[in-house]
Specification:
Elements (H helix, E strand, L loop, with lengths): L1 H51 L4 E5 L2 E11 L4 E10 L4 E12 L4 E3 L11 E2 L5 E7 L8 E13 L7 E11 L1 E2 L1
Parallel strand pairs: 2-10
Antiparallel strand pairs: 1-2, 2-3, 3-7, 4-5, 4-6, 4-8, 8-9
Length: 179
């Protein structure tokens, strides 16, 4: 009889303790679920960013990476915009981009529209991509491809602005997505 009373007392005590532990587990579960939702939304955001910045064409010159991410044509305005990322791989730099032009598949060359384009003097921080957009106007016949996109760039390390490197870059056969 004594054993039965002790056993029932232990059972009642363990039931009482298990109820409070269950409430704590429910609260902890709710916290984990809310954290999971936040992480899922952040993950989706990062996936979109990676997709947006996925390069169509990429090249590296003088320890800088140039990635073209979009080539967009506007039928109403008769313009083409080339969007790309520039990233310094070795040190902080000042860059000058000049003589920017495109050639369509018919051999027509178009000059840059300076007023609708990014400033061609980016300051690059190490391993931080900078987005640049160059727009070209008076585009004829809505070409499906840009045969050649070219420009010259001069890079100067911020530590010594008298030391510079010059190079010419060319991107070929870029598909234009018309709106």
């Amino acid at each position: 009889m004594k054993k039965l009373l002790i056993l029932s007392a232990i059972s009642i005590t363990s039931l009482g303790l298990s109820q409070t532990n269950c409430e704590n587990l429910k609260k902890e579960n709710e916290v984990l679920q809310s954290t999971n939702k936040i992480l899922t939304s952040e993950n989706e955001y990062l996936k979109k960013i990676v997709e947006i910045n996925k390069p169509i064409s990429e090249t590296e010159k003088d320890n800088s990476t140039f990635k073209i991410t979009k080539v967009i044509g506007n039928k109403a305005e008769k313009t083409i915009a080339i969007i790309f990322l520039v990233e310094a791989k070795d040190e902080n730099k000042k860059m000058t981009i000049e003589d920017i032009s495109i050639v369509d598949i018919e051999g027509k060359e178009y000059e840059i529209d300076i007023y609708k384009s990014s400033r061609p003097y980016p300051e690059l921080a190490l391993n931080t991509p900078i987005k640049l957009t160059f727009s070209f106007k008076n585009i004829e016949n809505e070409p499906l491809f840009i045969k050649l996109f070219r420009f010259k760039e001069t890079s100067q390390p911020i530590r010594n602005l008298f030391e510079d490197t010059k190079s010419s870059l060319e991107f070929k056969d870029l598909k234009v997505n018309w709106n």
